[in-house]
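For the sake of transparency, this paper describes our internal protein records without simplification. The record that follows is passed on verbatim for readers who wish to inspect the format:
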Amino acid sequence: MHTSRPAPVLVDDLIPVILESNDHWWPRDFQRLALISPAWVYPVRKRLYAHPSLRTYRSCHLLARTFAANPELVSFVHRLELRPTADEERALDEREMQSLRCILGLKGLRSLTLGGDLAVAAHRFLSVMHDTRAVTDLHIDGCMVAQRRAGSLAPVVPSLEWDDAIAFRFPNLRSLTLSNVLLTIVPSMMDRPAGLTHLTLDNVDVDVGFLPDICQGSWETLRELRLIRGNVVDIEDGVRSMLETCENLETLYCEGHELLYHVTVFDEDEPPPPCPNLRKLCLSGFDIHPGTLGAIAEACPAVEELAVLGRVVRVLPDQWTAFLSSGRLKSLRRLLPPPGTRVPPFEFWCPSEREQLHEVCNAKGISLADWAHKTSQSLVDW
């Protein structure tokens, strides 16, 4: 006798587990999942509104309207990306400005990214925010504005003015990332909030001010500094001044263009500030010679990971092996050298030279990174 089995039933407690099993849900996926049954609505809303990413003023208006009609959704928002752009010919209307004020007035935000038009004098929009004490991660990105308006007769420059008023609005900030902006740093008249641990400047020009003043109050807490694609003089001056003031720095990334210019931050003739706590050092795109390695060993005796990349490195394979064999970097455990040397011109190392470097690294207990996975000569994945 044939008996039909009951249809399988999904236990509601498994719904959050299913949603958390995949980080690549699309908004349309959430829409379909929410229609399965009422039990799916709350978990789907919690995931859908956790990290809104808005790139048009229309989407800002729709989200603000949704929050006005469903205020219970506001508590789900923890991260926010606002990158709206408008046509050059028109100004924002009152409805769009009101939508921005509504969204920037959200409470409990932990991470905020401002881009597009909001990266132009970004401090104006940071001042509009009502509740900033929970923000630990702040990113200002002027990339879209710089690209879209580069050919304009009156180009608008993405910019940020960092002063006491802005610094004190973010007392719990831990990570600050500035990309493609003109930066003005106003010196502090008092001790600013401490706690910043990560600072990244990507294609940032310091128009006015002294770089260490941007993290004044956090000189002892800063652990990671990234300076990427900046003017070589600004990078060198910025690195040296930051090393002098931030004695507890543990990670330093410096990535410039392929510049035929001798880097003086780590130079035997101009000794760099001592970096006793530096554990990870990454340099790319600078003219580096054997004396640079000696200066690194002198200033950073505790470095455990070292990356030196670019096509203007003038250190020969036998000079690398001699430096590693000397044991001057006793704590070194991981190395990423370039795949060749600028003789000039740039020449890739032959297999026997790479094998010799491998043997020295193995003898010293140093892990040598594989060049095959670093063809871009970038420090992004390091």
Remarks:
- The chain has twelve helices and 17 strands.
